[in-house]
Every structure is written in C-alpha cells, then in structure tokens.
Amino acid sequence: MSHVIITGASRGLGAAVALRASNLGWDVSIGARSRVDLDTISKLLNPKQNNHANSLDVSIEKSVTEFFKNAVNHNGPASAVVHCAGIYGPFGPSNSIRADEWIRTIETNLMGTFYVARSAIDMMLEHNGGKVVLLSGGGATNPMPNISGYAASKAAVVRLMETLALEVQEHNIQINAVAPGLLDTAMLDEVIKAGPSAVGESFFKRMVQAKSDGADSMDNAVELILFLMNNNVPGLTGRLISSKWDEWRSWDANTSIFNSQDIFTLRRQVTP
C-alpha cells in the first residue's frame, strides 16, 4: 500500500474511504473544513499507519496547495487522491435563490475540484504518476430542478475530469469520477430538512423514502473508490463509473471494453 490524500474526509463517504483505506494499510492524509469532525475521524484511523489531518477549504486555492504540501511533507508523495468534498448549495427555483449562494456552490464543487486535481497532478507528475478519484452526483447525468447549482457543478466536474484525464494520459496518471448513488449522509438529511417546498415534492419524497427504507450502499461506493485507487485496467481513465449500476467488480487487467473512446462518458446522442 501507499499514501492516499482524501478531501471531505470528516464525514460521509470521505470518512468511510479514509477508515477503510487505513485499515487496509494505506497511510492516510485527510482534510475537511470541520476540525472537530476531522479530529474524531483521525482517532479512528489505524494507529499502525502514518496518518495526517489538517483543516481544508477546497474553495480556496491557497488552502488546497498548503494542505497538499503538508500532506506530502508528513507522509511523502501520494499515489492516490480521492476528492469527496462538496455541497448541495441553495435549494429552490433558480430565479428565487441568492446568486452568491449559487456561486459558492460552483466555487466549492467545481473550483474546489479544479484546485485539488491540479495539486494532485503537479505532485504526480513529479513522482511517476498516480490515481485521482473525483465524485460526480445526480446532477452530472440528469437535470435537478431546484438544485441547479449542484447539478451544474457536478456536470462540469465530469467534463473537467474527462479533459484532465486526456491531458495527463501519457504520464501514468489516471483520473476517474465515481457516481456513488444516493447515500444516507448529512447531505441527505439536508435535503429532508429543506422540505418539499424548496427541493420539489417528488425529489423530497424520494429522499424520505431512502431515509426510511435504506439508501444505496455506502460499501459499494467505498469499494469502487478503492478499486480505482489501485486501478490496473487498460484505458480506465476519463470515465464516470456508477458504484450501483456498472459491473466494475468484473474488470481487471484483461478487460478490453475501454478501447471504446466514449464508453462511460458524457456524450450527446443522436438518431442514426
């Protein structure tokens, strides 16, 4: 195993990835805005590994560059970076929400991804490559009425991921995005708290049902991210992979489906 840097690691999927990776023998560097929650997760990491935690606001470029510098100084260059930090942003029709809150969503979800990915690439170019795993969301492949900042930012994240993957494909750097599904996290609670008038009746009902009947598998999302952290599948870069719907568990070094340039990507489809 080696060193993995994880953002948004104080709760939810980021925390779950950090704990699993640490128990599997990875040295782990974690960052998030909440120092209190970060310290809680730090205490649960495998004490036999080299662990590092530091405050991080991904929407601020200097915060990201300093975080990476400290992580590398503490644990050495990372062979994997997992970017889980993100927010929903404002709920409601786009003509009624505050523009500054919408912009804040873009700054966190899109610019934050750009800053993290760029720092990861700079590090990996100096140390023989690595794996970068980003997070998409429901808005990446479908519109999300009343959550437009989130939807727009996540669609942009996937296109950014594809573009960056092409830019570094000759340098042994693989960049992919994970669609983790609907997970039972604080973000789900945030939607329910906002209520149907803010997020829309159908979306609200879906969230409430997920909360009561069981959301998608956190374990599946974690396992897919760990798979991509160790990715040796030919051509598996620049792809959007669903932990729930795609058959990624069957992929290995002999898999040839990624010879197709467009599979598992965002593309415009037209009639033959």
Automatic annotation (TrEMBL):
Any GO MF annotation of the entry: glucose 1-dehydrogenase [NAD(P)+] activity
Superkingdom of this protein's organism: Bacteria
Native species: Acidithrix ferrooxidans
Signal peptide: none
Keywords (A to Z) from UniProt: Oxidoreductase
Gene3D superfamilies assigned: NAD(P)-binding Rossmann-like Domain
Matching Pfam families: adh_short
SUPFAM superfamilies, A to Z: NAD(P)-binding Rossmann-fold domains
Lineage summary: Bacteria, Bacillati, Actinomycetota, Acidimicrobiia, Acidimicrobiales
Family statement drawn from the similarity comment of this UniProt entry: Belongs to the short-chain dehydrogenases/reductases (SDR) family.
Protein name listed in UniProt: Glucose 1-dehydrogenase
InterPro entries: NAD(P)-bd_dom_sf (IPR036291), SDR_fam (IPR002347)
EC number(s) on file: 1.1.1.47
EC class: oxidoreductase
